[in-house]
Amino acid sequence: MQRRLIDYLIISLKGLAMGAADAVPGVSGGTIAFISGIYEELITTISNVNASLFKTLFKEGIKPFWIQLNGNFIVALLSGIIISFVSFMRLAKYLLENHPILIWSFFFGLIIASIYFVGKQITKWNLATIISLLVGAVIAFYISKLPTLATNDNSLFLFFAGAIAICAMILPGISGSFILIILGAYQTLSNAIHDLDFKKLLIFIIGAVIGLLSFSHVLKWLFKHFHNITLAVLTGFIFGSLNRVWPWKNTLTWHTNSNGIKTPLLQESISPLAFEGNNQLAFAIILMVLGFLTIFILERLGSKK
Description:
Elements: H1 5-23, H2 29-35, H3 39-47, H4 51-60, H5 62-69, H6 71-98, H7 100-119, H8 127-144, H9 155-169, H10 176-183, H11 186-195, H12 198-225, H13 227-240, H14 242-245, E1 249-256, E2 262-269, H15 281-303
Helix pairs in contact: 1-2, 1-6, 2-7, 3-12, 4-5, 6-7, 7-13, 7-15, 8-13, 9-10, 9-12, 12-13
């Protein structure tokens, strides 16, 4: 595929949006990739990293290898994702601690719009696609209700947490960061990024790479053989995740770590009118609308050739 420099800059911007989304527990970078028009290319590119790719490198040289790898696309997208994820994770931590209603409102609007744009790509609705959508919604809703596990610093645990979370990160609707929270690895990873703990980061990255290469083959096969059903399940995932990003929550139980810092363990969604001291309703609605409109802009960029 022939691309100009401006095309790769747009891909990097989409990577920035994906990284920012994945840094927030509740929003999936896969959703951003889907609505911005690069999802299937991303899955195909990842799944093409196999033995034949390295045969091309040794037999034909670097240039054919780079073309088969779709290297320019990978570099453009990854540079945006990494820069955004590392920088936005700190900002997200601050916003979630100090302005949770506002940040969740923005992403709630974003996900509402995502449901429409992902769902409209289903070319044929029948009983199978409807059931698939409902199954996806139930699974995502169930995951969103799971309580958080205690924080774990074990190296093997971090490896598997990376492998599991990366699978969620490339699935529209299910947030990799939220999976990390459920597993009890989000705080560990956040601290590792903040403290530049390269050992923990390397273990997590290795697990993520192995998980990504394995899972992308499954997704590529599903898109090839069950395109509409796969889209219906992914739309259901996004719909079912709305409970997780609902801005107004009532915390039922708390987890206190060894430093005495309390974090929500189990929460339930409540009406904004029932939320005590809620003086941010107008700002929350404005941010929902902005989140909704953001998807229209990304979708417009993704639909341009």
